[in-house]
């Protein structure tokens, strides 16, 4: 069926028995009950449950945002195809699947069938993505279903395995395994490692430490290429010499030098709080894509979405963020300017060797443009188009251990995205144009994703 999905549905969780669907001699399917080792606990929406499991896996695995966003897209796009298959069989698809909805045979809907399709698909995708977290994933499966994930369920053969295989084959050899090391341009203004004696970062001492330099070449999920929405180089300058000689560059550096300094007197208390609230750079946090998925879940609960609605929403958000990462890393590494970070611009370029960013450390890849900004704009763009309004009030949370506040309330998706983008300036790790160009890039990606994949009926 190509990249198409459909949705809307109600949770049908019956926590009494497991049901195995077996083929009869005539080829029809009958329902045969089996006793479960424990009663299922289908509390809450299954899509939200498995996204929370994903966040736990991300916290344990760590790593750069590109692979994290890819994992989220892989799980949520597969969940959506599983849910689309359920809707196709028992209800009505109201939006296109991502890859394919399976029209599987069955005479009667089994107990907890929607739960089983979503949960077994999510589990099998996560197991492939995080094989070293098998115990954690098995325990989360048992917590939900009361049984082992290896226990027989015919839905594995008729729906789950085809969907997981389709997704795995679709992303096989997509370029995400490319480990080619980065070679620095070696010019003033070009990115260089950001570890200093008074700001040590053992993971960023050599040019080859630069994180995921080939991610901009990964096969997109919906875009035609990673360079589809590539902006002009900062300030339209195409060389390091012309960039560094420009008044625009000097103004950019001065803004972050003032607002992003550890001991800044121009940054407000609220800006400092926002800087830490949106950070989530360190391993052990759910990273920027995970924070936005957590906020998506909070909005979903506030709005009372169904599993079908959630499956599509989370797939759209995840695909948009995954493509934003690809497009953003194309900007960082595949354009003429691999811009050095503010700490390098100020220490190496201006000779202010005592300057420290509020963050203390800096992500180990070029500054332009901001990944946080692109993720936030892609998320906000999908949320705005999905809910058909920007003006929804919601409360966001963070698991950044250094954040002085754990929640912040916003009156629109765009307001939150703008603050996340600006927070990188206040943290001292980005220039203003990193934020603005990242926002524009993410917005373009969201519009493309929403209009080209998983479209609602009649759109």
TrEMBL record:
Record keywords: Signal
Annotated signal peptide: 1-38
Pfam families: PAP2
Domain Phosphatidic acid phosphatase type 2/haloperoxidase: 338-451
Source organism superkingdom: Bacteria
InterPro entries (alphabetical): PAP2/HPO (IPR000326), PAP2/HPO_sf (IPR036938), V-haloperoxidase (IPR052559)
The protein's name in its UniProt record: Phosphatase PAP2 family protein
Protein's organism: Streptomyces palmae
């Amino acid at each position: 069926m190509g990249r198409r999905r459909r949705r809307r549905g109600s949770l049908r969780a019956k926590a009494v028995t497991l049901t195995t669907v077996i083929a009869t001699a005539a080829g029809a399917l009958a329902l045969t009950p089996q006793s479960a080792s424990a009663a299922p606990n289908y509390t809450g929406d299954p899509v939200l449950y498995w996204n929370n499991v994903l966040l736990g896996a991300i916290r344990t695995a760590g790593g750069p945002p590109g692979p994290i966003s890819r994992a989220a897209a892989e799980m949520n796009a597969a969940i959506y195809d599983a849910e689309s298959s359920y809707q196709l069989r028992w209800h009505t698809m109201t939006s296109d699947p991502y890859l394919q909805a399976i029209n599987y045979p069955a005479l009667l809907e089994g107990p907890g069938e929607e739960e089983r399709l979503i949960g077994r698909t999510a589990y099998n995708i996560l197991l492939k993505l995080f094989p070293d977290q098998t115990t954690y994933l098995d325990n989360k499966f048992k917590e939900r279903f009361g049984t082992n994930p290896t226990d027989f369920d015919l839905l594995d053969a008729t729906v789950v395995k085809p969907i997981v295989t389709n997704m795995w084959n679709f992303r096989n050899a997509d370029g995400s395994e490319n480990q080619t090391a980065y070679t620095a341009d070696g010019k003033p203004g070009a990115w260089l490692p950001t570890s200093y004696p008074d700001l040590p970062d053992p993971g960023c001492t050599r040019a080859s430490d630069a994180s995921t330099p080939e991610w901009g070449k990964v096969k997109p999920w919906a875009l035609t290429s990673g360079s589809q929405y590539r902006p002009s180089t900062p300030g339209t300058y195409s060389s390091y010499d012309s960039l560094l000689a420009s008044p625009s560059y000097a103004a950019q550096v001065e803004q972050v030098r003032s607002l992003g300094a550890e001991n800044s007197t121009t940054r407000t208390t609220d800006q400092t709080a926002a800087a830490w609230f949106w950070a989530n750079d360190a391993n052990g946090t759910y990273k920027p894509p995970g924070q936005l998925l957590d906020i998506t879940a909070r909005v979903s609960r506030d709005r009372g979405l169904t599993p079908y609605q959630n499956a599509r929403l989370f797939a759209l958000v995840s695909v948009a963020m995954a493509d934003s990462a690809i497009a953003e890393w194309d900007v960082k590494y595949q354009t003429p300017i691999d811009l050095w970070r503010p700490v390098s611009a100020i220490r190496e370029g201006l000779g202010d060797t005592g300057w420290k960013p509020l963050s203390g450390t800096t992500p180990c890849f070029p500054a332009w443009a901001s990944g946080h900004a692109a993720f936030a704009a892609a998320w906000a763009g999908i949320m705005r188009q999905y809910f058909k309004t920007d003006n929804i009030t919601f409360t966001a949370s963070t698991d950044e251990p250094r954040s002085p506040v754990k929640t912040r309330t916003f009156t629109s998706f765009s307001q939150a995205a703008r603050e996340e983008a600006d927070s990188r300036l206040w943290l001292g790790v980005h220039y203003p144009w990193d934020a603005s160009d990242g926002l524009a890039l993410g917005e373009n990606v969201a519009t493309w994703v929403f209009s080209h994949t998983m479209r609602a009926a009649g759109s």
